[in-house]
Every structure is written in C-alpha cells, then in structure tokens.
Amino acid sequence: MSMNENKMFDQSPINWFPGHMAKALRQMKEKMNLVDIILELVDSRAPLATTNPILQEYQKKKCYLKIFTKIDLADDQLTQEWKQEMEKKQIPALFVNLAKKESISMILTKIKEITAPLVQKDIQRGLKPKTIRAMIVGIPNVGKSTLINALSKRKSAGVANKPGFTKAQQWIHCKDLDLLDTPGVLWPNLKENQNGIKLALLGSIKEEILPTHDLVKIAIAFLAKNYKTMWENHYQIAYHGDVETYLETFATKRGHLFQKDQLDYNRSEKAILNDFKNGIIGKITLERCNDDGWF
C-alpha cells in the first residue's frame, strides 16, 4: 500500500461501535465464569485485523481455541504460513471451511481434546461429567452463526453476509455441548486505520462508513501489487497503473450505465468490492504473519 493510499484515512480514525456491541461486551464479561472454553473465530484472510484486542483479556484464564474460518477464500500459501505461526506460538488453532462437514468434526474433536482435563477432574471427584459450555466470540461476519448452525444441526442462529446481523446472546443446546452465541463485537475506535480498511474490504464493518471510491482504489492497489495476474485474468481487463482509466474500462465492459451515454462508476466500484469480499476474483489474503509491506 503506497504512502498516499495509507494517508487517505489518517486524519479520521474509523469508528463503528453500535450500542448493542457495548452491551454485548458487558454481558460477555459477566458470563465468562459460566463457560469452560472460548472459541474465537477469525477470518483467515486477515487474522490480525479480525482479532478483537478487547476480547483477549477475557480469555487468559479459560480453555481457548482459535478458529480460522473462510480458508476457501484465503490464499493457500499464506494460510500455510499462518498454520506454522500458530504452531510456533503454541496457540491451539484450527483452519476450516465451515461449509464442510469434516471441518465441523475437527472442531468438535479439538474441543473434546482441550476440555478433557475438566471432564477428568469431574470423574476423579466421583461426579458425572457436566456438559461442556462454550462461548463463541469474534468480530462481525466471521462465521459464528454458521458454526452454531452446523454444530446444532438446525437453524438456531440467523446467517447473513453482513456485519451486525446477530444482536443478542443466546444459548444453543446440542447433544454434548452447550453453546453461547454472541454478537460480533468490535473495539470502539479503530485507530489503526489499515485494520479498519481491511475489515471494510472483508465486509466485517459496513462499507458505507468509508468512501466507496477511496476503498476501491485501495483494493485495486492491493490487487495490482499482490495478485495482478489473477485479477487481470478474472476480469479480462489489463491494469496499467491508472485507477480512473481502469474503472472506465470496467464500467464500459460491464455495461454499467446511468443513461445511454453516462457510465455508472459507483455501480462498478461496488461490483469490484463485492467480488473482492466474496472471493469471486480469487483466493486473497490481506495479512502475512510478519508485516513486510504486504498490505
């Protein structure tokens, strides 16, 4: 990302902290003592930006599993780097596609493995092992409700590919596991604006809080730097370094028109951002393990 692009939002930190998020944070803190394990979901395309620092302080005294979701949308090579990083730091982690049954089986097996000492402790005390209680946490749009539905085998939690969809905590009772679903929670002030931009590109915060034209310029600069061949092949449009010319070509090719002779650039920009977010362009990852200027 060039210096000019980084400076786009330097003067105004990104804020997106609806009232239900502040309430959810308070409730999560109150209910931490009721759960045995915390399952934190992060987006494999931006594991750092989608990790909420506020939640970390609540997780130090609990069993913990970090679940990297949406690996089907992430760069395979960089996903492998993140796997190695988690192993190096000895952080319990799984990398999954929540649409696959084998991923759900992996999660259940890992939960049992991590919480086995708690079950054994009950047995040693002559008690019937209690049902394990898990709290599912994560920022908006990382797959919490999808995981809940898969584990419970029913549509208990609503699912939508937009931030802020789940707005209340709810207990979901499964066969061998009780799950506490929580709303996606961000931190009040995204001072590191690159994180805010990444979250907007992934759909974890509403795109509307950032100027669409500026956001698409950042997306195009990132694609040109890191995924140029894949991007050009997908749209069959060559990029020669000028965003405005590229958007004009894109709008013309797609037939995005206000009227017969007036191009609808806003429609084209939204189409590119939507394709970026949903993996239509190809497998894209915004963060490497070590900050080496990738984004």
Task: Please tell me about this protein's structure.
The protein has helices at 3-6, 19-31, 53-56, 76-89, 101-124, 144-152, 193-202, 212-226, 228-235, 243-254, 265-277, and strands spanning 37-43, 63-69, 93-95, 132-137, 170-173, 177-181, 257-259, 262-263. The protein is of the alpha/beta class and 295 residues long. The chain has two domains: 19-181, Rossmann fold (3-Layer(aba) Sandwich), CATH 3.40.50; 193-277, Conserved Hypothetical Protein Ylqf, Chain: A, domain 2 (Orthogonal Bundle), CATH 1.10.1580.10. The strands form two sheets. The protein has a six-stranded mixed beta sheet, sandwiched between helices. A hairpin with a 2-residue loop joins strand 7 (257-259) and strand 8 (262-263). It is elongated. The N and C termini lie close together (5 Å). Residues 5-13 and 156-167 have low confidence and may be disordered.
